[in-house]
Specification:
binds 2-keto-3-deoxygluconate; 2 domains; 403 residues; binds magnesium ion; 10-stranded mixed β-sheet; Enolase-like, domain 1; TIM Barrel; 13 helices; alpha/beta; 3-stranded antiparallel β-sheet
Amino acid sequence: MAEIVSARVIVTCPGRNFVTLKIETKDGITGIGDATLNGRELAVAAYLNDHVIPMLIGRDAHRIEDIWQFLYKGAYWRRGPVTMSAIAAVDMALWDIKGKVAGLPLYQLLGGASRDGCMVYGHANGRDIAETVSNALAYQEQGYKAIRLQSGVPGLAATYGVSKDKYFYEPADAALPTESLWSTEKYMRSVEPLFKAARDALGWDVHLLHDVHHRCTPVEAGRLGKDIEPYRPFWLEDATPAENQAGFRTIRQHTTTPLAVGEIFNSIWDCKQLIEEQLIDYIRATVVHAGGITHLRRIASFADLYQVRTGCHGATDLSPVCMAAALHFGISVPNFGVQEYMRHSQETDAVFPHSYSFKDGLMHPGDAPGLGVEIDEKLAATFEYKRAYLPVARLEDGTMFSW
Ligand code: KDG
Ligand code: MG
């Protein structure tokens, strides 16, 4: 028995907000888990503090599955981003403790390495196609085997997903949401030329990805997928909102461009139909927002039955704790596809010292026991929480549009 004697929530803002849960056992072993939900951070912190932590004290940290089931089935109010991020944080921290007790990196407890490393994709952004392609070339030179392309749309003042900074991309940029204008017609015309220019400059030995950020209808997404088919994209991401999973049938009828979805999913139920009907090729659910390693492994096993591979979300609003967990998961899971990798800022890396590393386009979780990531609490305390929201979008006539 590894009795849980304390659990604390640590909120810090080394350039952006992160919520971390730290659990300690009677023997003084600690484990940490990421609980960050971009723009709604304090809701998860309160859920943990007020409703989860009191139930953890006195339990056996080794009973990871039982604690997961207790928190999920026992709540009555199941699923949802706040609940599932809180459960995920507990789950990650418990796996961290188990690894430390065993003296093994977590991936060894998950069946060992299935590959040498996890292929990651970097983000090439630019105000226009030329700038995006030039940034993509820089990624290729650094050894990346997969690159996401996002470019400013001619005629639109700002485009979500296009960073102002070359290396860091931080979309939650204001204390209240900024509003930008969106035109699907203008956007649709801009994607094919971007892919053409990228293939001309980068060649064919690199994977190219693109994120639609839920901005198309299914039939528009079908057209977009068809437009870029000649350039053999690795995937088209979040082509349409996925609340209506059957909507993806329409996209499938029109294009063979592979589809990725799921960064905002919280449970296996959000992707059940998408996977069962083979309407997607990559599932992007993540450790922090989809119930932790325990639940993500269940999603991946189910996806494997249908040849759907993993492609976990890995934006900067997921902390290095989640990144470490994703890499232990990714290196061990049989149906790994790709892992998103947006580098964290130096301040964030200093608050979360970690053993994972990047080389030749692949990342490895490292061989430190457990997750291989810690939190420097003293340093974390020097960065106070700062409310920050993602922008919102309206159509050019003022109609509120998808995020
Ligand atoms: O919190 C939202 C971001 O994580 C998201 O906009 C990033 O779409 C994203 C991606 O694919 O990384
Ligand atoms: Mg995305």
